[in-house]
Specification:
Blueprint: E1 12-14, E2 17-18, H1 19-22, E3 26-32, E4 40-44, E5 53-58, E6 62-71, H2 75-88, E7 95-99, E8 106-114, E9 122-131, E10 136-137, E11 141-144, E12 158-165, E13 170-177, E14 183-190, E15 195-199, E16 202-205, E17 208-209, E18 232-234, E19 240-245, E20 247-248
Antiparallel strand pairs: 1-2, 1-7, 3-6, 4-5, 6-9, 7-8, 8-9, 10-20, 11-19, 12-15, 12-19, 13-14, 13-18, 15-16, 16-17
């Protein structure tokens, strides 16, 4: 039986802990819900016209079902292991989780379960993780001035931060996507050596929140996407560090 407990090829790590390692006798058997994924379409029929008109497209949340095997020596040990499994899956918010056979991480929380049948000391059960964000994300990556060519180039990257060091004094900083023309414009007195960071839909200058200085009319701040191969430029800096995650369905 020892060989049976080798780490599963699809072992799950949830909130930083590998369940297949944390609980002796537990093994991830199968994972459902990671393959093809379609957008949700909203459409409207027009009287006198064939077919319909698609009015919007969005990606719905994703539910991942994890099937597992659990074995114990007796009922007491069985219940202890079930309680530990329950505890390890608890969270008050979405947490990072991943599978050993998949490069990347997802974010979600426990939303359902089904106990192994009967009150035996061995059996197969399952639990469901609800991901309100359906995407799979790569590890954190860093590029300078330009996003490298990516394998999955259809989707925009998840921008974790954009940072730069001001090299030339000025009263208007313009960060521009060379491919789309989208811009982020910040009006303030900038001096050489000022550090600017764009992160979590906020703007920081030397660690001070500068969102109030954003030119809301001329900027595309809340729609500033970056894709594979996109490059950035700034009128007051030459080096722009981009931290991001590649994402895919």
């Amino acid at each position: 039986m020892e060989s049976y407990y080798k780490l599963s090829k699809s072992a799950i790590t949830f909130n930083g802990k590998c369940l297949d390692e944390e609980i002796k006798g537990y093994m991830t058997l199968n994972v459902i819900g990671r393959q093809m994924f379609a957008p949700k379409l909203e459409s409207q029929e027009i009287r006198g016209r064939d077919g319909d008109i698609t009015t919007s497209l969005s990606y719905p949340a994703r539910d991942i079902e994890v099937q597992y095997y659990l074995q114990a020596e007796n009922n007491r040990e069985w219940l202890q292991k079930m309680k530990k499994l329950t505890m390890l899956l608890q969270s008050k918010e979405d947490v990072e989780y991943s599978f050993a056979d998949e490069y990347g991480v997802r974010f979600g929380r426990l939303s359902g379960f089904e106990d192994p049948p009967y009150d035996w000391n061995a059996g197969i059960g399952k639990f469901t993780i609800h991901s309100q964000d359906p995407f799979l994300y790569s590890e954190l990556r860093e590029d300078t001035n330009k996003i490298k060519e990516l394998r999955y180039d259809y989707y925009p990257v998840k921008i974790e931060s954009i940072s730069l060091m001001v090299g030339v004094a000025g009263n208007k900083l313009v960060l521009k996507n060379a491919e789309t023309g989208n811009r982020i414009i910040v009006n303030d007195d900038f001096k050489a050596g000022d550090k600017m960071v764009f992160r979590d839909k906020k703007i920081f200058k030397n660690n001070k929140n500068m969102l109030a200085k954003l030119d809301y009319v001329a900027s595309d701040f809340f729609d500033f996407d970056l894709y594979s191969g996109h490059s950035l430029s700034c009128n007051l800096a030459s080096q722009i560090k981009i931290e991001y995650r590649e994402k895919v369905l």
